[in-house]
């Protein structure tokens, strides 16, 4: 609003009240307009309204409009002296100009003085014309009382205005702080989005209800490409207008669709924490293999509030590993046929060695042992390169398998001065493939003997509980560091201590054992310390694996 409009709006309440009094005076108070002072009051009212509209207040400064409430106080003084019988005391209307003056930019002393003296002088006007002392004294008392009331009103308005100004300043200060915080928050948000869009991994944040809170550009591009590669709708197949195709997720074989509850986002939404979970966006040759991981988000009370899922493309690595496995498998097959022929012919030579000298027989036996060792290595390579381990489950006595494995390793243990011990209740029934579990036990016992010094011991024990059977293979060997223990089930891994000790092996036995155990629906773990031996624990479901094989 402009200065004139503001002055007019401040004057309007008083003008409406006075105009109403003048309008009803002929009927309510017939002699009111006959008074010269009353007519002067009406003239002052008209003059004040005209001044509100016509005077250029913007040129006169902020204090100039206070002339209007001063005129109002003079007007009230004239109206009170009209001498009309029954006319209410109009001095109470002084509250309107007093409020205007108190709310202005005048200093406190000036506004309080004007608020007190203005009504006082307005009340003294009729007293100057009084002809009786009693009337004069009563009028002075009324005028002083009215002035004190207006002073109280002025004090209240000043206090309220001061409080309001203080609150406004506090609100403005808070607003300034919020603006600074908001600007900082937006800057950090832009920085976060820039960082997330720079990294070559996909990142998705979801809340507890599964709504996406954040998806970076890399992940959006991955999902868009996978959704675009989906099979187009067949003619007549229902589809929603503008419906966006969901990206197809398949397993590691790049063919079998992943069940909805096994997708990374669903697993993360259920509160799971996982890493290196491989899925494929798309299918067949166009699919992109992604390694996923998730961590849950929790509040201070430990309640689940969402999760962050990370997607890292490993297509080239998976293809390279598949190509390596193909090469290993092909080469192993090519080695196996001639090795089988060599071993067969060596067996024939040893079965009819009457014409051979003793040194020649020993050399043939050495060749036979090394050929058999090479054939075992080729078999391990073939199994490690195989994409699946096939098992045939049946009711099996695990104690019998342990006893057979220790019996087979007895000669090796005696040659290495290692004692063997068994603490397995008999019978100990599990649903397992006896051939595969026997192979796993042979690998664990053989490793325990191989990595134990002369005079050491190997102990096999078993416990049951919670529907699980736990088989422990404990040795007193060299042990491993925590870093080596974390990689011990990786194919071709051999610790530095083993390599420096020139202990033979290819680093395949434990990886094959892990594949066999997991195929049975179980797990294998290692507890070890350097120089204090190792304990490998195989855990199998007592009632068989969760699915049929």
How does this structure look, described?
- The strands form three sheets. Strands 2-1-6-5-4-3 form a six-stranded antiparallel sheet. A five-stranded mixed sheet has the order 8-10-11-13-12. A two-stranded antiparallel ribbon has the order 7-9.
- With 549 residues, it is of the alpha+beta class.
- A hairpin with a 2-residue loop joins strand 10 and strand 11.
- The longest helix has 66 residues, at 133-198.
- The chain has helices at 3-28, 36-54, 67-80, 95-102, 108-128, 133-198, 217-228, 264-269, 315-351, 358-385, 398-408, 410-415, 434-450, 482-487, 496-500, 509-519, and strands at 202-207, 212-215, 249-250, 274-281, 288-298, 304-313, 394-397, 419-423, 429-432, 457-465, 468-475, 523-528, 534-541.
- 53% of the residues lie in helices and 15% in strands.
Write the layout of secondary structure elements.
Elements: H1 3-28, H2 36-54, H3 67-80, H4 95-102, H5 108-128, H6 133-198, E1 202-207, E2 212-215, H7 217-228, E3 249-250, H8 264-269, E4 274-281, E5 288-298, E6 304-313, H9 315-351, H10 358-385, E7 394-397, H11 398-408, H12 410-415, E8 419-423, E9 429-432, H13 434-450, E10 457-465, E11 468-475, H14 482-487, H15 496-500, H16 509-519, E12 523-528, E13 534-541
Parallel strand pairs: 8-10
Antiparallel strand pairs: 1-2, 1-6, 3-4, 4-5, 5-6, 7-9, 10-11, 11-13, 12-13
Helix pairs in contact: 1-2, 2-3, 3-4, 3-5, 4-5, 4-6, 5-6, 9-10, 11-13, 13-16
């Amino acid at each position: 609003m402009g200065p004139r409009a503001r002055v007019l709006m401040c004057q309007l309440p008083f003008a409406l009240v006075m105009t109403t009094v003048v309008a009803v005076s002929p009927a309510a108070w017939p002699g009111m307009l006959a008074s010269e002072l009353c007519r002067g009051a009406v003239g002052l009212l008209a003059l004040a309204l005209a001044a509100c509209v016509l005077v250029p207040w913007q040129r006169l400064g902020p204090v100039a409009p206070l002339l209007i409430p001063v005129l109002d106080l003079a007007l009230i003084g004239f109206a009170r002296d009209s001498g009309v019988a029954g006319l209410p005391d109009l001095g109470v209307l002084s509250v309107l100009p007093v409020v205007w003056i108190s709310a202005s930019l005048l200093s406190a002393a000036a506004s309080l003085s004007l608020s007190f003296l203005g009504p006082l002088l307005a009340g003294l006007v009729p007293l100057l014309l009084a002809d009786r002392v009693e009337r004069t004294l009563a009028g002075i008392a009324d005028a002083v009382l009215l002035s004190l009331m207006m002073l109280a009103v002025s004090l209240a308005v000043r206090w309220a205005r001061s409080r309001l100004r203080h609150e406004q300043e506090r609100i403005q200060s808070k607003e300034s702080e919020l603006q600074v915080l908001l600007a900082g928050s937006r800057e950090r948000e832009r920085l976060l989005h820039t960082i997330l869009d720079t990294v070559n991994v996909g990142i998705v944040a979801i809340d507890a209800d599964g709504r996406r809170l954040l998806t970076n550009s890399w992940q959006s591009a991955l999902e868009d490409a996978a959704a675009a590669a989906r099979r187009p709708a067949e003619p007549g197949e229902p589809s929603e207008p503008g419906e966006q195709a969901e990206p197809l997720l398949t397993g590691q074989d790049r063919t079998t669709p992943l069940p909805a509850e096994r997708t990374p986002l669903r697993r993360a939404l259920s509160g799971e924490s996982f890493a290196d979970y491989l899925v494929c966006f798309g299918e067949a040759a166009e699919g992109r293999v992604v390694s996923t991981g998730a961590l849950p988000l929790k509040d201070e009370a430990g309640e689940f509030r969402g999760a962050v899922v990370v997607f890292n493309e490993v297509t080239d690595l998976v293809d390279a590993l598949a190509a390596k496995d193909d090469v290993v498998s092909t080469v192993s097959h090519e080695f196996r046929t001639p090795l089988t022929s060599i071993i067969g012919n060596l067996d024939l030579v040893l079965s009819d060695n009457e014409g051979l000298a003793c040194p020649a027989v020993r050399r043939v036996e050495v060749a036979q042992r090394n050929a058999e060792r090479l054939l075992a290595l080729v078999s391990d390579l073939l199994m490690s390169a195989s994409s699946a381990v096939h098992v045939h489950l049946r009711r099996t006595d695990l104690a019998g398998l342990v006893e057979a494995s220790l019996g087979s390793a007895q000669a090796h243990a005696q040659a290495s001065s290692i004692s063997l011990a068994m603490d397995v209740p008999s019978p100990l029934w599990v649903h397992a493939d006896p051939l595969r579990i026997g192979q796993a036990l042979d690998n664990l016992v053989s490793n325990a003997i191989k990595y134990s010094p002369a005079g050491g011991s190997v102990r096999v024990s078993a416990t049951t509980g919670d529907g699980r059977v736990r088989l422990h293979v404990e040795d007193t060997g060299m042990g491993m560091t925590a870093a080596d223990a974390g990689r011990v089930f990786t194919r071709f891994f051999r610790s530095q201590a083993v390599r420096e000790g020139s202990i033979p092996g290819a680093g395949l036995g434990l990886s094959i054992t892990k594949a066999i155990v997991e195929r049975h629906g179980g797990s294998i773990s290692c507890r070890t310390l350097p120089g204090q031996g190792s304990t490998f624990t195989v855990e199998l479901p007592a009632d068989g694996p969760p699915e049929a094989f």
